[in-house]
Structure formats: C-alpha cells, structure tokens
Amino acid sequence: MPYHQFKCSECIPERLKHAVDKGAGEELTDALPLGYLNTIPGTISERGCAYCGAKHVIGTPMKDAIHLSHGPVGCTYDTWQTKRYISDTGCFQLKYTFASDMKEAHVVFGAEKMLKKNIVEAFKAFPNIKRMTIYQTCASALIGDDINAIAEEVMSELPDVKIFVCNSPGFAGPSQSGGHHKINLAWLTQMVGTVEPKIYSKYVINYVGEYNIQGDQEIMKDYFHRMGIQILSSFTGNGRFDDLCGMHRAQLNVLECARSAEYICDELRARYGIPRMDIDGFGFEALSDSLLKIGYFFGIEDRARAIIAEETARWKPELDWYAARLKGIKVCLWPGGSKLWHWAHSIHKEMGVEVVSVYTKFGHQGDMEKGISRCESGALAIDDPNELEALEAMYSLKPDIIFTGKRPGEVAKKIRIPYLNAHAYHNGPYKGYEGWVRFARDIYNAVYSPIHKLSFIDISKDEIPADKGFATQQTYSDAGLPDAVKNDENLRKCTSKYDPIPDLREKTYSFPDPDTEKWRVIPNEELSRKNSGTE
Amino acid sequence: MDKNTATEKMKQLEWYITKHCLWQYNSRGWDREIQNERILKKTKQILCGENARDDDSYADRYYWSEAITLVEAFKKYFPWVEEMTKEEIAAVMHLLKEKMDYTMIKGSLNLELTKEKY
Ligand code: SF4
C-alpha cells in the first residue's frame, strides 16, 4: 500500500503521507494515511472548524432548544441549514438560528452584557421554549467572555429555563472533529444525570451518533419501536434536550456515527457501565445484522428477525432492480468522516458499484482503517484532500459519480461528474431498507440522467445529433441489459413515497412494561414526539 | 488440520470480520484488546458448544450478542465451520485472535491507539 503522490502536491511534501493506494494483498499494517492533523500551510483544507463540529453537527439537531452562537453573525449563518436534520415537531431547529452578533466594539469592551440581553430576548421571543445551547466562537473565546457565568445568572433569574454551554471555539482542534469531542464530553459532564427519565419499556437504548438527516432517525426508530425498544434519547437528531440529560439510564448505547459520537458512548460505558454497540443503519445485510445483534442483547431476536424478513421481502426486489443497472458503476466515496466505512462494502456488494476511491475530510486514522478495510483493492484512500487533489483524482480515476458534500460536489459537476450529497442527501432518508432503495434510485437517476449526458455536448462546436429523440434514464441504463433482466417480473422500480416519514409519525407501538413485562400501547405523546413548545 | 489449512480458514473468517464488523475498531489500543479478547473468546465458546455467558451484566450481554451474531454469519458464509472438531475450531480461532491483535493493535499504524483517554 504505497503512499500516493499527487502531482499537484509535490510542492507540499507533508501531504504525501495523507494518501495511499490500496494494493492487492496489502494490509492495514503496510500503510495507513495520516489523519486528524492540523492543516498544512499551503494546502487549502475544506474542513469545518471545531465550533462548526460542536454546533452544526452535534448541538443543533436537538429539536427543542434555542441554539445560540456567541460571536459574529457569520459563524452562525455559515453553519445554518446546510444539513437537513429534520424533527417531528416542526423543525424549529432548522427554521431559526441565533447569534449574539458580536461586533468590533464588543471585542474591545467585552460582550457579556450583550450576550445576557440576547439570551433573555431569545427566550422572550419564543416563550414556549425553555432550553438553550450556547456556543463559543473564536471571537468570544479570544476576548475571554465567561459564558458559563452569564448562563448561570440567567438561570437564576429565569428558573424555568436550562442552558447548556459549549466552549469549543473554531481554533480548538484541527477540524470539526475537535468540536465533536468537546461537545460530547461537555454534554456528558454538564448535563447527563441531571434528569431522571421516565422508563416505559423493559428494553431501553440511547440511539447515538444519529442526526435524522431527512428522517434517518425516524425510519430506524420505527424498527426499534416495532421491537418494543424504548429510545430513551437520540443523540442528537430529533432528540429532546431533557431526554439527553437522562442518557445514564439506558441499558445499551446503539452507536451509528462513531466518528462524531463515540466519545460520549465510551464515557457512558466507563462511568455508568452502559455498553457501546456500533451498528450500520445502511445496507440490507449490515442493517439486518445490526437489528439482530440488538435483538440478541435484549433476548428479542425473534422480533428482529420478523422485521428483517418483512422489510427485506418488501424492498429487496426494488433494490435489485437498481443493482442490475448499477453494476460496474465507478464511485468516489468522498464523505466527511463515517460514511466511507458505512457504505464502502454495502454499495459494492448490494448495488454492484466499484468504489475507486475513499476519502475523509475530518476523519481520524481509525476511520481510514475501517474505510480501507471495507473497500476493494485498487482504491485510492485520501485524508483531507484539497480541491486540486480531488480534481486530479477525478481526472485520473474517471468515476461515474461522486458521493460527497455540496462544496466538492459542485466542483465535480463543473467537470461533468454527477454527485450525490452524502451529508444532507438528495432524496433521503437513506437509512433503513426503504432508505437504501431510495439511495440506489438517487444513484441511478444521477448516473443515467439525460441532462447530464447533454452536458457533454458543446453547442458552440459539436454537431447536435438530429436523429436521436427523447431519452430517459432507462433508455441509457437498459441499452446493454439482457432481456431476461429487463423483463424480470420479480424486480421493480422504487415505490417509496415522495416523503415516507409523515406516515411513520402516525403509527402506534406497544412496549413491554419494565416491571410486569405486559405489552401495552404507549401513546404517541409519550414517545417524545408531540412535546410542547417547538411548533 | 495442518497449519496451512488452519491459516487459510482463519483468513476467510478474518475477511468476514473486516468487511462486516465494527467492534474491532474502538479508538484505543487497550480497548481493542478487550474487544478482541471478549468477543473472539465467546465466539469460540459458542462454536464449540460451550457456555459463553459469564454473568447477566449488560457488558457480558453485549459481548455475547456480538459473538452470537458473528457465529450465525460464520455458519452462513462458511458451512465448513460446522464440520470442524472442537480442537480445529480452537486452533483456527486462536490464529484469528493473533491476527486480529496484530492488525488492529500491535502492528497497527494508527497513532491514536496509544492515547490514554478517550
Ligand atoms: S473558525 Fe472561528 S470565526 Fe470561523 S466560523 Fe469557526 S468559530 Fe467562527
């Protein structure tokens, strides 16, 4: 697994050890890219800052709190609405963002008074909301404002409110990952244990490292609830502030994105003895294995098996319709930190695509270990690439599609490579059996898009073919398919609704009583959906 | 079973873990040691038909549920697992544990493994 020398980075020798080619028969012990290091001067990293990691990635998906940044308005604006972490109570956390709006005068004279005024103002503007998270930024950290002291003052004056303070300014780590670490530990230390949650099921988990992108959490919640499992808290997608204060009462932490949330699981294990179970919510097989082992933990594996059988029978024919048409498609799997390993093997095995490169923006070496292990040999693995390296990789690898964030995605489009948004999704959710089919459909639609094909014609010089008529995705995808596959009645296109989430919110579920073990229906309100104050 | 056959079988099991499991990647070396030790030991015990439960603590239930899921997958992917004797299973699992310890800990190039705290 030799290091990969990008031509464009020959002038930055430190970059060499950040990329490797996975050779046949080579092992992780032969070479591993460096990771989670400070940005090298001269290379333009595309990573977010530590404040962004704390606030945007982890803090703000919480649905029933005012999320206020203590700093210039730019910090909060740039970390607003770029990820669709929806909630089942009206998406307050997406509609509004709050900043104390620091200016030069505050840098000179201090911004504490102004912060206090803004906190009170925000609570007055939204009288139904009694919870707040406050984020330090570079500016407020550098002038040394004591945010915790201000929060304490406000809480003593307004006894019905609760405020969490996260001191993770932009410079507090090499990337947003530094912020994940800080807010994980800050939440654990300041908040966990301050609320005693109501336990209504014999089986209780925290669902951690899950951000409800376009409903991911809700699609997984449906499976857990069908198994009779109470989700005590969701860290943090679609999660409630007070539920997250009661995390210490779970029996198991089910962890999805280890990159952003392993720290709180590790500490909950060390301090409260709650085991950490890493799972994959993506991919039929990986998800089935995950549900099964959660089932085994509680002794309800039969319930897991029933769900696996039902969902597989419902959705597999649709996944296979796309798999037949995606075989051999070349993919650069270039997400932020965890999807390189969540997806690498499952998309190859279940959709037949070839992963020609994996990269991570802010991942650590542990993420690369997982990503490289799960992709096939021949793939190029890159840590924190700059834009020129990504371009060089695309020109040499010639992928059919890139799964990445919107900044590098727009660059890919300029060189006529379609991209799917790996962070905020195109037409998600992508988790769950249904979600995985939606993902396959999005890949299919992007790769075979007639508009994309047209983009290769340069109308200033190319001949416009007059003999070709209207084309659809299927015109292209089925051109070389054998008739047996084309006419296979067992396969069908995606039948998922435009938005499958609202129906899930109307479902009712039964849970076994923790003492009597008698199964009974728990009303929706108690499942922490229709809590007050967030509409 | 000779050493080459055992190694060949071990590699197949290792391939499965590499592509499907996440438990071996905890971020610290000492943590990985515990994961490998507990989960692979229980896996071996279940495969050999021995008792794999130490107690009813959440921790033990966790390691056991990883192990039993792994055993199910091993049986599905590699039917030869069910044809081996207990001694053969023990030999292959011993090699697997050694290999996992080397790849994930002793030979790992991950510089974060030696950090003490999470
Ligand atoms: S680096 Fe500092 S100034 Fe820039 S967005 Fe992050 S917190 Fe704000």
Description:
The complex is a heterodimer of chains A (about 525) and B (about 120). Chain A is about 40% helix and about 15% strand. Chain A is built from 22 helices and 16 strands. Chain A has a 6-stranded mixed beta sheet with strand order 1-12-11-10-13-14, with helices on both faces. Chain A has a 4-stranded parallel beta sheet with strand order 3-2-4-5, sandwiched between helices. Chain A has a 4-stranded parallel beta sheet with strand order 7-6-8-9, with helices on both faces. Mean pLDDT of chain A is about 95; it is low at about 530-535. Chain B is built from 4 helices and no strands. Chain B has helices at about 5-20, 30-45, 60-75, 85-105. Chain B is globular and about 45 Å long. Iron/sulfur cluster binds near residues 71, 78 and 170 of chain A.
Put simply, the count of helices of chain A is: 22
Query: What is the 3D form of chain B?
Result: globular
Shape of chain A: globular
Strand content of chain B: under 5%
Greatest chain-chain contact? A-B, 40 and 31 residues
Order of helices and strands of chain B: HHHH
Per DSSP E runs of 2 or more residues, the count of β-strands of chain B stands at: 0
**How many distinct domains of chain B?**
1
Radius of gyration of chain B: 14 Å
Comma- or semicolon-separated keywords:
heterodimer; A: 535 residues; 6-stranded mixed β-sheet; 4-stranded parallel β-sheet; 16 strands; 41% helix; globular; B: 118 residues; 66% helix; binds iron/sulfur cluster
Question: Could you write a compact summary of the structure shown?
Answer:
Chain A has 535 residues and is of the alpha/beta class. In chain A, 41% of the residues lie in helices and 14% in strands.
